[in-house]
Design brief:
This protein is mostly beta strands. The chain has a domain at about 1-55. The chain has helices at about 1-10, 15-20, 25-30, 35-45, 45-55, and strands at about 60-65, 70-75, 75-80, 80-85, 85-95, 105-110, 115-120, 125-130, 135-140, 150-160, 165-180, 185-195, 205-210, 210-215, 220, 225-230, 235-245, 250, 265-270, 275-285, 295-300, 305-310, 315-320, 325-330, 340-345, 360. β22 (about 305-310) and β23 (about 315-320) form a beta hairpin. The protein is globular. Mean pLDDT is about 80; it is low at about 260-265. This is F-box protein. InterPro entries: F-box-assoc_dom_typ1 (IPR006527), F-box-assoc_interact_dom (IPR017451), F-box-like_dom_sf (IPR036047), F-box_dom (IPR001810), SCF_F-box_component (IPR050796). It holds the Pfam family FBA_1.
Length: about 375
């Protein structure tokens, strides 16, 4: 055993780098404790970049039970004849230190290159964070200096600009004006947009957002753009695209007009944007039907065609497209009433300390 240990310790650095960067995050966390040499190697920014390029994507799953919340990292195992969602308590984390009151106020609103965008919602104001659950680091963003007298925040987004590689948080809000007759606040139709670039320490107002935004929907990041499902001033649904490089909005039409899925009883349709061809339609599952389960998210399409769904706030399911049947995923959740949230996540050892002007804290 000692000979094997000495052999590993004496390997050239570039070979050790090749070996360690191919290991899963859980194993790397163990390797950091083996010796100082490995710790320094794993903490090197080059290691983080190389490991991220080889790491498999997964999910951050968020469980809620009364005032208790916890997060865990879930991996994807995907082969033609097999799929699974392995998870481990070692990759479980909580964010008690971030929240002012109970961590039940923490929600995850985005993910980019291993960083999570999180919000702490309390009765005074909302606090925004960027955190890395693997390095156990977080940044608390400064409060935006709103240009509106009575702002009402309706949506956020988080992503990476495609050319500059800058990480940006986008905040869209409506102005509210005071009705002189009733003394009540009423919403103004237009929206304002603010951007925070990590490493700058300040928010910037980039102008007016040209559409009315639905506060229930977050900006989804894809290839350097944030996307929202929105309504124009006439009530028609569009997809709004915000380019994180140019910081400009551009709308484009959805695959079908109006709000209904072509008059069908489907709860989810999956379309391909190139030709807006409909690929998959998922019908209602009777045992899950009801007002509490109207929102359905497709999280992953496995190689064998099985779709991983988040159905409402309480069920994660495997949906077999061949048979039209569903099976609940066992995530070893706590007993009793609870809810589930999930977001795509690629584990990363990139440190938040890479951003100047940011106060990075451990959790």
């Amino acid at each position: 055993m000692e000979k094997h240990q000495l052999f590993l310790m004496n390997l050239p650095t570039h070979i050790m780098l090749e070996i360690l960067t191919r290991l899963p995050p859980k194993t790397i966390l163990i390797c950091k404790r083996v010796c100082k040499t490995w710790l320094e190697l794993i903490n090197d920014p080059h290691f983080a970049t190389l490991h991220f390029s080889r790491c498999r994507p997964g999910l951050v799953v968020h469980h809620s039970e009364m005032f208790k919340k916890y997060f865990k990292l879930v991996d994807f195992e995907d082969a033609y004849d097999y799929h699974d969602l392995p998870h481990d308590t070692m990759l479980k984390f909580n964010v008690n230190k971030l929240s002012s009151f109970f961590d039940a106020n923490i929600v995850v609103d985005g993910s980019a290159n291993g960083f999570l965008f999180m919000r702490d919602i309390n009765y005074k104001h909302e606090t925004l964070y960027i955190c890395n659950p693997l390095t156990r680091e977080y940044i608390e963003l400064p409060q935006p200096g709103s240009v509106a007298r009575y702002p009402s925040v309706v949506t956020h987004g988080f992503g990476v600009a495609s050319k500059s590689g800058e990480y940006k948080v986008v905040r869209i809000f409506h102005e509210r004006e005071l009705d002189p007759r009733t003394r009540a606040c009423r919403r103004v139709p237009s929206s304002e947009c603010q951007v925070y670039t990590l490493g700058t320490g300040a928010w910037r107002t980039v102008g007016e957002a040209p559409f009315s935004y639905n506060s229930r929907l977050l900006g989804l990041s894809f290839r350097g753009n944030l996307h929202w499902l929105i309504e124009d001033l006439e009530g028609y649904e569009l997809i709004s695209c915000f380019n994180l490089e140019t910081e400009m909005f551009q709308p484009f039409p959805p695959p079908f007009p109006g709000r209904k899925l072509l008059g069908s009883l489907a709860v989810l349709g999956i379309w391909v944007e190139k030709s807006w061809a409909k690929e998959i339609v998922i019908r209602k599952i009777p045992e899950l039907a009801g007002p509490s389960f109207e929102v359905v998210q497709a999280l992953k399409i496995f190689t064998d065609g099985t779709i991983l769904l988040l159905w409402g706030d309480f069920f994660m399911l495997y949906y077999c497209t061949k048979t039209g049947t569903a099976k609940e995923v066992d995530l070893e959740q706590p007993s009793g009433p609870n809810s589930i949230e999930a977001i795509h996540y690629v584990p990363s050892f990139l440190s938040l300390k890479r951003f100047p002007l940011e106060n990075v804290s451990p959790f």
